[in-house]
Design a protein that fits this description.
257 residues, alpha/beta, 8 strands, binds zinc ion
């Protein structure tokens, strides 16, 4: 039994075959998936999935890549996060790859999300790209360790992982860990303790080998887990058990169905 800790099932490529995606999850032993929000404009699609399917959960947040969009304040995030199927705040964080000018609005938005998460007690889903030092700095300044969360689609160094772990965060690996060139990431996957490990697809992006380049889907989290298991010298069963247990440990508001 596996859980996809991060997917975007509401995106057009996937929602077009909602029933098929759910069926393939079941066929591959993927019992749950967390549908992650990227902006408020598309939040109804995310919440709708979690309302229609007992085994799907949702988050509330605005992705750091989205420049011109509905900007939530803390009160708005809190009221949206009160939905019973919302188990996390995010995805939030910093992305200086797509925004090379490292804009102040990203940091302000990130702080707002951390404050909302601390107030409602729902953990953070953190996205960081080319911005590890600032991401960790803001996590510390805003006491993100008080609520915890996950560093999703982890692609940073072992040192960054160590600092996130020290703040009580979980580390989630995506299909990137299966890519031929990702040996340094596989080293990080070996380093993360089994009680802090998560797996995800980030579907429709980043399909794992052997589907690299195709549209990703939650069912493929099995191949992510296999790549993590191989890297760690463990069985798929061991990684599946640990990551499923960790998912419900971290996302306390997610009730297994
Ligand atoms: Zn992300
Ligand atoms: Zn994502």
């Amino acid at each position: 039994m596996l859980v996809d800790s991060h997917c975007h099932l509401d995106f057009p490529d996937l929602i077009a075959d909602e029933a098929g995606a759910l069926q393939r999850m079941a066929d591959n032993g993927v019992i749950h998936a967390l549908c992650v929000a990227v902006k408020l404009e598309t939040l109804p699609g995310v919440l709708g999935l979690a309302e229609r399917h007992a085994n799907l959960f949702a988050s509330v947040g605005v992705h750091p890549d989205n420049a011109d969009c509905d900007e939530p304040d803390e009160a708005r995030l809190l009221s949206l996060a009160a939905h019973p199927k919302v188990v996390a705040i995010g995805e939030t964080g910093l992305d200086y790859y797509w925004h090379k000018d490292a804009p102040e609005w990203q940091r302000a938005r990130f702080r707002t999300h951390i404050r909302a998460a601390r107030r409602c007690g729902k953990p953070l889903i953190i996205h960081t790209r080319d911005a590890a030092a600032d991401t960790l700095r803001l996590m510390r300044e805003e006491s993100a360790d008080e609520v915890g969360g996950v560093m999703h689609c982890f692609t940073e160094t072992r040192e960054v992982a160590a600092q996130a772990l020290e703040l009580g965060f979980y580390i989630s690996f995506s299909g990137i860990v299966s890519f031929k060139t990702a040996e340094s990431l596989r080293e990080v996957a070996r380093f993360v303790p089994s009680d802090r490990l998560l797996v995800e697809t980030d579907a429709p992006y980043l399909a794992p080998v052997p589907f690299r380049g195709k549209t990703n889907q939650p069912a493929y989290v099995r191949h992510v887990a296999e790549a993590v298991a191989t890297a760690r010298g463990e069985t798929l069963q061991a990684v599946a058990d640990a990551t499923t247990r960790n998912f419900f440990q971290l996302f306390k508001h997610a009730k297994p169905s």
